[in-house]
Specification:
Length: 217
Amino acid sequence: MESAPVRLVMLGPPGAGKGTQGARFARQRGVPWISTGEILRQEVQAGTPIGRAAKVIMDAGRLIGDDIMIGIARDRLERQDAAQGFVLDGFPRSLPQAEALDTLVDDRSPLVVVDIEVPVETLITRLRARKICRNCGWNAAPGVEACAKCGGPLVQRSDDNIDVVRERLRIYERSTAPIVEYYRDRPTYRSVDGDQTLDAVAADIAAAVASVVGSRR
């Protein structure tokens, strides 16, 4: 693949596959996969004050406040390993967060934005079947029987029951989908069909990024 630094923002509703595809792309490019949701779940697992407050909000299917999310993203993007590129998953999730991200990055390489599009009924099916590790919070791919990180048992996420799933999708449409409009007219924006096999989606994402690298945001 190309050696140019890539700074990729993964967009898409809950269940679109942002985490799976973002982590896969990051491994291939040798850049950090930065999942703000994963960071929050680690805080929850550790029982920190932020984690305890976030758990109540996440269990209800609501979004964490902009100030907390912007602070988490800023702290992570300032680490040295993100200087040569990154994949952002779960941020931005609101227009204030998208505007803040523009102030956190410069013009040395383009900010590539890929939106994964998936039909609503497919999202609901995926989310209801999704599981995480009870011990460490690792997100399991479909069909996996045990945690690949620690071997722990897999359980359904507390925010993936049917009522919370539908609420999360409603919140996405109301609060997060407008971000697509924020980015849509940029030459570095692309959309891909997420209702395909994992390999097909990964190939489309790689092609989308390759078509953008070299342009400016």
